[in-house]
Amino acid sequence: MTPKSKAATFILSFLVPGAGHFYLGLNKRGLQFMIGFFGCIAFSWLLFFIFPFAVTVIWFYALFDSLQQATVVNRWIAEHPQSPTLFGEPSESDGRPVDEGPIHIALPWNRTWDVMWVGIALIAVGVLILLRIMFPYWWVALARIHAGGILLAIFMIGFGAWLVIRQYRQR
Q: Is there a contact between 30 and 21 (Cβ–Cβ < 8 Å)?
């Protein structure tokens, strides 16, 4: 296998989040970024004050993650030049860049939470769609008072407090 170009990875990820991962052979990871990115664009009509923020976060995260993954993939290729494929049976000890399932942030939860969060997100989006359809004037009133910005600020403060408290308890 030939090493992957970091410049090509950067350009592809800059144009479409997840495309750089496809170039690297990380198809599951690339597809997850693409679904998240285009899903946020598709739902931007619903919450025009939150989904653009999510699109930006996904875009930047995918961009920097693809560059990090390019380093890992190139290291694997350099250490195993005779390997015909990048992936196969994963081993924890060989340092192979395995295209695993969902993208995880190190949280003290087990894998069953991943499916639960997807379910919670689908329920929340469904409720928001129903509210927008059933109460269109209420939705306009919320937009006028910048309810999305207020909710986003509350979420960021709460998440930041949770991180600080968790870090404090670990010490």
A: yes
